[in-house]
Structures are given as C-alpha cells and as structure tokens.
C-alpha cells in the first residue's frame, strides 16, 4: 500500500530534502504457524510488485528488490536480503499492536533510518540510488491493519521528528487529497476483471529561475527612496500575512499559520 505523495531530487530544484512519517499498527493477528508479514519503508517509482519471491528484481514485499527499503521490526530489507538491526534491550522480534514506526528520509546525504516506539534502530541505509521519486510504502499479510501519519491535518505525530525534518504532508500539492492505493492488485477475479495499481503522478519539483538584477542601474533620483521602497514592500507582505490569519512564532508551522 502507498499514498499518493512523492518526494525526490532533481538538478537545480528547491524541494526540501528531509522527510518523516509514521505508521501505527492497529491490528495484527497470527492465523497460521507463519508470522504475520508487515514491512514499512520507502519505495521508488521504479518499484514493481509481483506475486513471486524476491530475487533482487521481482518483489512481493517492500525490500524484496533494489527499488524499495523495508523495516519489519527486526531487520532492514533491501534487494531481498535482511540486515538485522534489532536491539534486544529495547525491541521485540516482531511488530505488535499499537507499535509506532518512524521513517526518515534524508536526500542530502542520502540516508534513511527507522525508529520503533521512539527508539531509533541501530542500523540505517546510506548511499542509495536517488533515481526516481520516493514514496512511503507498506507490505502486509491478511489480518494486519495499520495507518499512516503524515503530520498536520493528516495525523499528529506520536513521536516528534528530529529537528530540521519536514512532515511528509508538506510535500503535497495545492488542493491535493491524500489517497492510499495498492501497489499491486488483481482486481475482481470472479467477474473476470483485472486491475492494476493506479499510476503514480510524478511531481515536478519547483526549479527557481531568479531574475538577475545586477545589471540594472537605478536613476539617481531614486537613490534616496530605494530603502524606503524596500521597507514598504516588506510591510505590505506582513499586512497580507496578518490579514490571512498568520501570527508570529519562533518555529514555522504552515498548518497552524505560524
């Protein structure tokens, strides 16, 4: 399962590079001798889920191929391999009901790490491929349910993200509505209808193209008023913000208009 929110890196763009979201386990039930399957993490737009076992290219779960990274409570999965990152003093072997998994993606280093109930795991992923756009993803078996928390109006974080990290909801486009879609679906077999996952919309990151004013020379009679014009422009900007309901605060919060 994945939401319709994507982040990424493009040359010259001004998109923020550090993102965080959480997942809460609402229900988990073991119905056979096999442990329930649930992995939480990130996938890229090259990720293609298929009903075969993971061999580095095909995938039936997050982390089964080279285009996704998953955490199952004990291991970080990538390319079909599990890397144990558990800490026996603070972590259990598998996820339990009401567990909170934090997922952080830093596209500057690049680096991604996970936390369980507020405790960072002792392993992380670094120097991964930045090709394509990244989105949160969950793979789970039957009798397992969970929910995404993106911050702001889309759920308040249970554990505060590190300083300088943005809530994932801030990557949403204007007037965009969040939807959760399957990464893979057979559709309705009984009615002979085959459905695939909805296509991912590749968000085009804003690339600023500032206007160069170094070659502009003001007339001499404007030299005395240029500073005043700058102050007046800033005052007009402040007045518009106040009229829109914004207020002063030490930390910016677009949801609260601070």
Automatic annotation (TrEMBL):
<dbReference type="InterPro" id="IPR043136">
    <property type="entry name" value="B30.2/SPRY_sf"/>
</dbReference>
<dbReference type="Pfam" id="PF02026">
    <property type="entry name" value="RyR"/>
</dbReference>
<dbReference type="GO" id="GO:0014808">
    <property type="term" value="P:release of sequestered calcium ion into cytosol by sarcoplasmic reticulum"/>
</dbReference>
<dbReference type="GO" id="GO:0005790">
    <property type="term" value="C:smooth endoplasmic reticulum"/>
</dbReference>
<keyword id="KW-0407">Ion channel</keyword>
<dbReference type="InterPro" id="IPR001870">
    <property type="entry name" value="B30.2/SPRY"/>
</dbReference>
<feature type="domain" description="B30.2/SPRY">
    <location>
        <begin position="1"/>
        <end position="155"/>
    </location>
</feature>
<dbReference type="GO" id="GO:0033017">
    <property type="term" value="C:sarcoplasmic reticulum membrane"/>
</dbReference>
<dbReference type="InterPro" id="IPR013333">
    <property type="entry name" value="Ryan_recept"/>
</dbReference>
<keyword id="KW-0106">Calcium</keyword>
<keyword id="KW-0406">Ion transport</keyword>
<dbReference type="Pfam" id="PF00622">
    <property type="entry name" value="SPRY"/>
</dbReference>
<dbReference type="InterPro" id="IPR015925">
    <property type="entry name" value="Ryanodine_IP3_receptor"/>
</dbReference>
<dbReference type="GO" id="GO:0030018">
    <property type="term" value="C:Z disc"/>
</dbReference>
<protein>
    <recommendedName>
        <fullName>B30.2/SPRY domain-containing protein</fullName>
    </recommendedName>
</protein>
<dbReference type="GO" id="GO:0042383">
    <property type="term" value="C:sarcolemma"/>
</dbReference>
<keyword id="KW-0109">Calcium transport</keyword>
<keyword id="KW-0813">Transport</keyword>
<dbReference type="InterPro" id="IPR003877">
    <property type="entry name" value="SPRY_dom"/>
</dbReference>
<dbReference type="InterPro" id="IPR013320">
    <property type="entry name" value="ConA-like_dom_sf"/>
</dbReference>
<dbReference type="InterPro" id="IPR003032">
    <property type="entry name" value="Ryanodine_rcpt"/>
</dbReference>
<keyword id="KW-0107">Calcium channel</keyword>
<dbReference type="GO" id="GO:0034704">
    <property type="term" value="C:calcium channel complex"/>
</dbReference>
<dbReference type="GO" id="GO:0006941">
    <property type="term" value="P:striated muscle contraction"/>
</dbReference>
<dbReference type="GO" id="GO:0005219">
    <property type="term" value="F:ryanodine-sensitive calcium-release channel activity"/>
</dbReference>
